[in-house]
Amino acid sequence: MNTAIPAAAQAAAAPTVLDGAVEKVKWRILPLFVVMFIANYIDRVNIGFVRAHLEKDLGIGAAAFGFGAGVFFLAYALFEVPSNILQQRFGAKAWLTRIMGSWGVVATGMAFVQGETSFYIMRFLLGVAEAGFFPGVVYYFTQWLPNRERGKAMAIFLSGSALASILSGPLSGGLLQIEGGGFHGWQWMFIIEGLASVVLCFIVWFCLDSHPRDAKWLSEAERDALAAVIDAEKKERDASKPKNASMLSLLKDGRIALFCFIYFAIQLTIYGTTFWLPSIIKKMGHFSEFQVGLFNSIPWIISIAAMYMFAALAQRYRNQQAWVAVALIVAACGMFASTTGGPVFAFVAICFAGLGFKAASSLFWPIPQGYLDSRIAAGVIALINSLGNLGGFVAPATFGYLEQKTGSIQGGLYALSAASVLAAGLVFLTRRKS
Questions:
Q1: How buried is 206 (Cβ within 10 angstroms: 0-12 exposed, 13-18 middle, 19+ buried)?
Q2: What pLDDT is stored for residue 11 in this prediction?
Q3: Residue 3: inside a domain, yes or no?
Q4: Are 201 and 106 in contact (CB under 8 A)?
Q5: Disulfide engineering: 357 pairs with which of 30, 195, 222, 269, CB 3.0-4.6 Å?
Q6: What are the start-end ranges of the H helices in 283-340?
Q7: What's the confidence (pLDDT) of residue 197?
Q8: For residue 375, with 0-12 CB atoms within 10 Å meaning exposed, 13-18 middle and 19 or more buried, which class applies?
Q9: What phi and psi, each to the nearest 5 degrees, are found at residue 89?
Q10: CATH number, domain at 303?
Q11: Cellular component per GO (predicted)?
């Protein structure tokens, strides 16, 4: 007698099949996404290394630089939700390839800015081009990995930004020393780093699949086992939401607003540090561009270790909100301490803060992922990321204004500390009621 066994039962009866599928998925997509994120992050933040060059060659001062650095995130916020919805329509393979190719072209075009206006326009267009990448990858994980694997996958993926921060310093510092062909070193930096992303988009097209059912590198049993557990988790999550759930109804949920603010506070600290750290390092002594890049890598090396340490602790002692709060408090203490001494002490304090703010970023995402109705998760994840990323506009724009008006960014560092402490308290309000 040939009795059909439900797919979910098969997955439960043969955990080794599911485990094998998960391992294949992680080895196939995580390295690719990490490389993509490295290229993405370098093209986004490499202007931090050319601030002095833009001022010298184009007359772009501190306030204009801060606004241009941040205007990227305004575009990102405006176009991220539509981009993520379009990914659901066209598929991850086509859409993520499109995102990568377009941001590479615009990043290359940064070499040809002529002044403040063109600087603002190109940074805005870069935000438009990149919009949807990060939440698109986050949503991709919900389609390919079981709940228990996503926290570790997010930590590995987010390590791409830390690796990018490590690599971007020596890489950009080295490229800045290139002169010739009618271009300055800062122009060669934009051209070479931007074209690298264009080349990478072709690799993405050949290596990425939109859905597990498209993955020929998985066996039929592995595809079935993976689909069964992911579908079961979706049904369980959707069962706890009203049947007429919509984007509008979820936006009325106070937790969504909390998610947005908490992520906003995290991004404030990350991008406040990212765009202004090279300037802080230059105050420590007379360093070459390459040496500045090497010093710039140190906080991010520390942050990678912290991300894995916090992820392991959160997995073992399951209280995600508490670990996010601890990480935010560490970041707050480090940023506050950076205001109490000279440039060298400030640099050491920011290294300590790095233990917290990158760990908080990776620990944060499993919280909204576990809360959202899967039917609209893509749009809401994009909304949280886009509004949260406005911290990337507020921090550099404020720091630039403060430096130009007062000659110091100390007030901005106080604000970053306060925002992290507030977010650490609010994260506990995102817990589900029993």
A1: exposed
A2: 44
A3: no
A4: no
A5: 269
A6: 289-316, 320-337
A7: 92
A8: middle
A9: -80, -45
A10: 1.20.1250.20
A11: membrane
| The predicted structure's pLDDT at residue 329 | 92
Q: What is the domain count for the chain?
A: 1
Domain that holds residue 291: 11-430
Q: Is 221 part of a structural domain of the chain? A: yes
pTM: 0.73
Residue 3: both structure tokens together: 């009795």
Q: Amino acid letter at 42?
A: I
pLDDT at 316: 76
- How many Å apart are CA 309 and CA 306, to the nearest integer? 5
Instruction: Please tell me the distance from the alpha carbon of residue 300 to that of residue 431, in angstroms, as a whole number.
Output: 30
396 half-sphere exposure, CB direction, 13 A CA radius? 32
**Euclidean distance between CA atoms 293 and 427, whole angstroms:** 34
Contact between 351 and 298 under an 8 Å Cβ cutoff? The reply is: yes
Segments of the chain with pLDDT less than 50? 1-13, 434
User: CA-CA distances (angstroms) from residue 126 to 39, 118, 121, 386, 388?
Assistant: 13, 12, 9, 14, 18
User: What backbone torsions phi and psi does residue 182 show, to the nearest 5 degrees?
Assistant: 85, 5
Residue 374 token pair: 């899967």
Q: Give the pLDDT confidence of 123-157 residue by residue, as tens digits.
A: 999 999 988 888 788 888 888 888 778 777 877 88
Distance between CA atoms of 372 and 217, rounded to whole angstroms?
Answer: 30
Q: Is 89 inside a domain boundary?
A: yes
Q: pLDDT per residue over 10-52, tens digit each?
A: 444 456 888 888 888 888 888 899 899 889 888 888 888 888 8
Place of tokens 């993976």: 226
| Structure token pair of residue 228 | 């069964």
Angle CA(185)–CA(280)–CA(180) in degrees, nearest 5? 5
Residue 6 is assigned to a structural domain of this protein: no
Instruction: Please tell me the predicted confidence (pLDDT) of residue 250.
Output: 60
Residue 318 burial (C-beta neighbours within 10 Å; 0-12, 13-18, 19+) = exposed
Element (H, E) at 431: none
Q: How many residues does the chain have?
A: 434
- Tokens representing 127 are 């935000």
Cβ–Cβ under 8 Å, residues 123 and 72: yes
